[in-house]
Amino acid sequence: MINVRRNFVNKLMLGIFAAATFLALVPLFALLGYVIKNGITSLNLDFFIKLPAVMGMTGGGMANAIEGTLILIAIASIIGIPIGILVAIYLTEYDRYSWLSTTVRFTTDVLTGIPSIIIGIVVSMAIVSKTKHFSAFAGGVALAVIMIPLVIRSTEEMLKLVPHAIREAGYALGISQRRIILNIVLPTAAKGIITGAMLAVARVSGETAPLLFTALGNQYWTHSLFKDPIASLPVQIYTYATSPYDEWHRQAWAGSLVLIAIILCLNLIARFAFRSRSN
Amino acid sequence: MGQSLSIRQLEAWYGTNQTLKGINMEIAANQVTAIIGPSGCGKSTFVRCINRMHETLPGSKVKGEIILNGESIYGQDPVSLRKTVGMVFQKPNPFPSMTIFENVVAGVKLNGMRNKQNLQAIAEKSLRMAALWDEVKDRLNYSGMSLSGGQQQRLCIARALAVEPSVLLMDEPASALDPIATMRIEELVGQLKSEYTIVIVTHNMQQAARIADTTAFFLNGELVEHGPTSEIFTNPRDKRTEDYITGRFG
Q1: The domain that contains B172 carries what CATH number?
Q2: In a domain, B137, yes or no
Q3: Does the model's pTM come out above 0.90?
Q4: What is the ipTM of this complex?
Q5: Is B115 on the interface with A (CB under 8 A)?
Q6: Could you confirm whether domain A47-278 is CATH 1.10.3720.10?
Q7: Closest residue of A to B104, CA-based?
Q8: One digit per residue, pLDDT tens: chain B, 250 residues?
Q9: Residue of A163, A190, A162 whose CA lies nearest to A275
């Protein structure tokens, strides 16, 4: 009797878990499917190599926005990832318990929750107003500011997962703390740190709001990282999707598909590059 | 060659909790000294003071003096002291990101030795001394984590030997291992004492009786008795030692 009941409850709960998993996957695959279905028909070679067409003309592409997004991601990563990792190393390896690290940790948590448009405004005031130019640099800094707290927290978690016994083993061999961190702790946590950094990159790749006042957007190629506004896929998608033209709507779908593909590729490259190193 | 240690009025704290109270002890060179006692008696803290690992924990404090080969260890840089005083831990802890070879030479390599041939020679010598060479010589490029628990522990011993210490501290090195792996470690300790001074913490009294030349009994942070192993086990001077070794408590 009890067995029958237990089996029934077991099956019921299993069913609920399976249903929840399925429910969670539905929007994901629906979204991917919808973007692919709408985007793929508008994708052609022109999309990757041509500038946007003049308003009212058909054809054209988003070559400048693709390039712009890659440049912005690169600037944000070059600034954000090293700073984030260095802060996390400080917090875990050098100063775990002081008031300073507690404050930094708390501030980091707050920063993670700040709406990205506010970060855009602040960076705009700090850089765009001072330099009198919308620029790739300003956009990259805004994205980096969003990335830093994400990288700090994910790296910190990964470093905390490295057992204390591993560090002690290093100390007991008369190895300096610098070498223990560089050659023992970081390699042990590398996989997780890279994954965390890639998630942060993926997160900022689709950010639109902070770019509106910093990188602005551009219908042409950009010639200076510090003096010219620069196009990016999210801003271009935003502009095209809110326009009244069907042609632009189609291009926005194609842009969305390319953006998702870029993020996927970055993830795959990072994982693949790391795997080949560890073997 | 091993070096002798002399410990004078050693006291240690974790926060406000005093774990060692006025320890005075002489540790002879090229001997195996066993530290026995119930859990929490300060035996681990004691060996961790000898290579100044105790101080790395937040809130810890040490007083007193430890003389290694005529020189105070507190006058030395702790990082270089630990090249003279090696340590093997209770749980095998090979570096997970490194191969077997890299693990063995980690100590010398991360202290600046780059010469491939020298590293190769050091790795082979250390692995032979740790009685692991024959088992791993064909797979030096495998991860250290691919070995069994007993092999991992001998890898850790090889890693400690590679930096050529004169004192080797072992904190319950066999307590996480099965009887056969334990036996191999014990044999190894017997072979190593011609080259090193060995201080081994153990909660296994039979183990102390099998391998140690002298045995020290710790209780509540105090050194109750230290003498030749045979005397401690057959004719202890202190009533508490007798109660402990006859199994009346602990």
Answers
A1: 3.40.50.300
A2: no
A3: no
A4: 0.90
A5: no
A6: yes
A7: A173
A8: 789 999 999 999 998 999 999 999 999 999 999 999 998 899 999 999 999 999 988 889 999 999 998 899 999 999 999 999 999 999 999 999 999 999 999 999 999 888 999 999 999 999 999 989 999 999 999 999 999 999 999 999 999 999 999 999 999 999 888 898 899 899 999 999 999 999 999 988 999 999 999 999 999 999 999 999 999 999 999 999 999 998 887 6
A9: A190
